[in-house]
# Entry
Amino acid sequence: MSIAETWGRELYEALRARCTIAPLIARDGALTIDDAYAISLDFLSRRLKDGERVVGKKIGVTSKAVQDMLGVHQPDFGFLTDAMQVADDTIDVDTYGLIQPRAEAEIAFILKAPLKGPGVTAADVLAATEAIAPCFEIVDSRITDWKIGIVDTVADNASCGVFVLGKERLDPRALDLPNLHVAVAKNGSPLSEGYGHAVQGDPAQAVAWLANTLGAHGVTLDAGDIILSGSLVPLEPAVNGDIFEMILGDGRRTLGHCVARFV
# Structure
């Protein structure tokens, strides 16, 4: 059994058993980032064999706040499947199905045309985007106590759990994406706030980075894909009964909102 198969199976079994495992890099210090992406693909293949299908991709660890919190100082990426998406007609997040969830507020891009790196620019991303939407990503590490380095989070599908999209669909070409503002409340109390420029200076630039990075691995961003562009605020632990709300605005008006209720 290859390295990718060995660790991919262990992560998959942890996902299904809703348990954590010791950091991979602590048990095999020779693992590289390329190894980690191969493990991630094996992990994904096992989910696809269960009937899940890919509906998008995600960027992780893009903002300084998240990098400092996790001690991981470069972005990564993962895959989104239909099983990770909370249905559009509900805001309920199944806490039982998660292990050690944390909520983060993001801007999601919904593509109308494919993007394939290298050479993708932020302008290309805007041209290929049908709409953006406010979003909560609920990250969830299969690594014990979130003791992750870049190899561990990459292998673990960029620590993705589930995601919730707000109902609003906005034209990104009519907005100043770097200066979009998000305010997050937890259980009715203000929690955090941030701006679009927290993710690589511009959420569209973050998506361009993703397209170019994936292109090096022979993977494209496809028409219809949902792309999570990275958290604008620090991650916040969530437990059963918590309610998170994010308000997306441009400083003059509210543009959209998203709610995640943990049940």
Summary: The chain has one domain: 53-262. The helical segments are 3-17, 24-27, 33-49, 64-70, 122-128, 150-155, 203-215. DSSP finds seven helices and twelve strands in the chain.
